[in-house]
Automatic annotation (TrEMBL):
PANTHER family: SORBITOL DEHYDROGENASE. This is L-idonate 5-dehydrogenase. The lineage of its organism: Bacteria, Bacillati, Actinomycetota, Actinomycetes, Micrococcales. It is an enzyme of class 1 (oxidoreductase). Residues 38-151 form the Alcohol dehydrogenase-like N-terminal domain. It comes from Nesterenkonia sandarakina.
Length: 359
């Protein structure tokens, strides 16, 4: 019997996907039905989250240096149910999410950081050739090792946040790796788009008591307050206190915000965690303050194992689902991507592919 957490199975004869052909050329179209090999599982996709990289592929036909050179199915944030497991280990209808990475070649000294190994791949990415097709389809196949079976109490809709929440949790772990203590630190989260919002949620769940959120969009700051930010500052009109923060999570990727963190907001000895992606030519940091204040800068790139922690956190903290502001139709990509690109309108935008519709 189907439940809210296990949508009714669909016929397996047809498959459709949202396919990007180039800048602002994107269509919901028929694609081949994938056939799983023994080490793979066929999934019926329920929900997919729209990420910044998806927006770039749609708007620009590229994400940074990675050009769309063949039709690309975007999407790496998903929840789904098992449609077919060739081994019979997982029954049809089992709710899952997916770790979207395949690790590359192990490197000496990076044994515990497979996210940094060269030669890996990520769902919905043009960084590989052929491109690694993504999740924004009715049916996909993934390696069995990428699956994470959902706990019974975690709704499949909320589980679509596992991947971006794992990014936020990895950023928190990166802060701890250089001796920062989020539980007691005075923290600034710069930029509260979807990843910034989830970083606020992750910090709140970790016990952080002093979280300041900054942005230039009042609606985004309202969402940050609901996730646990104790102070919200609109930096288009509010000043950020100087030398006041032990720890900054920079989630916007905006040069001015990065420069402000390292030169003004952090106290001496503070830690700057760069979460938001920047362009290859970006150079916002003035090193004089980094030297004189012994500012520590650490990057946070995707995640390793934190998706398992994200699943547990989503199960126990239902309010995190509030970062989802819109559930839209993949058959109409123009409004879908326009809404996701406008922080005045939206936090996290998700696509209901074959999931249970929500009001």
């Amino acid at each position: 019997m189907a439940t809210e957490n296990t949508p009714t199975a669909a016929p397996l004869e047809t498959n459709h996907a949202l396919v990007i052909h180039g800048a602002q050329s994107c269509h919901w179209e028929s694609v081949p039905m994938p056939v799983p090999e023994e080490h793979q599982v066929l999934l019926r996709v329920a929900y997919v989250g729209i990420c910044g990289s998806d927006l770039h592929y749609y708007r620009d036909g590229a994400n940074g240096d990675f050009q769309v050179r063949e039709p690309l199915i975007p999407g790496h944030e998903l929840s789904a149910t098992v449609a077919e497991d060739p081994t019979g280990e997982l029954r049809a209808g089992t709710p899952v999410t997916v770790h979207p990475a395949r690790w590359g070649t192990p490197q000496p000294g990076l044994e515990h950081a497979p996210n940094l190994w060269p030669g890996g791949s990520y769902l919905g990415s043009a960084s590989t050739w052929p491109h690694t097709q993504g999740a924004l389809a009715e049916f996909i196949v993934v390696d069995r090792t990428m699956l994470r079976v959902l706990p019974e109490q975690l709704p499949i809709r909320r589980a679509v946040l596992a991947e971006p929440l794992a990014v936020a949790l990895h950023a928190v772990e990166q802060a701890r790796s250089v001796g920062a203590h989020p539980e007691t630190a005075r923290i600034l989260v710069s930029g509260v788009g979807p990843i910034g919002l989830l970083t606020v949620a992750a910090l709140k769940a970790a016990g952080a008591a002093h979280i300041t959120a900054t942005d230039v969009v009042p609606q985004a700051l309202e969402r940050a307050e609901r996730q646990g930010a104790t102070v919200c500052l609109d930096v288009s009109k509010d000043s950020v206190p100087e030398r006041s923060y032990d720890l900054v999570f920079e989630c916007s990727g905006v040069d001015a915000a990065i420069a402000s963190s390292t030169s003004r907001a952090l106290r001496s000895g503070g830690v700057h965690v760069q979460v938001g992606m920047v362009s290859p030519t970006s150079s916002p940091i003035g090193l004089s303050r980094v030297i004189s204040g012994e500012i520590r800068i650490v990057g946070a790139f995707r995640f390793v194992h934190e998706i398992d922690d994200a699943i547990r956190l989503l199960e126990s903290h239902s309010a995190i689902e509030d970062v989802i502001t819109h559930e839209l139709d993949p058959k109409d990509p123009g409004p879908l991507f326009a809404t996701a690109a406008d922080p005045r309108l939206s936090g996290k935008v998700i696509v209901g592919v074959t999931g249970t519709p929500q009001p």
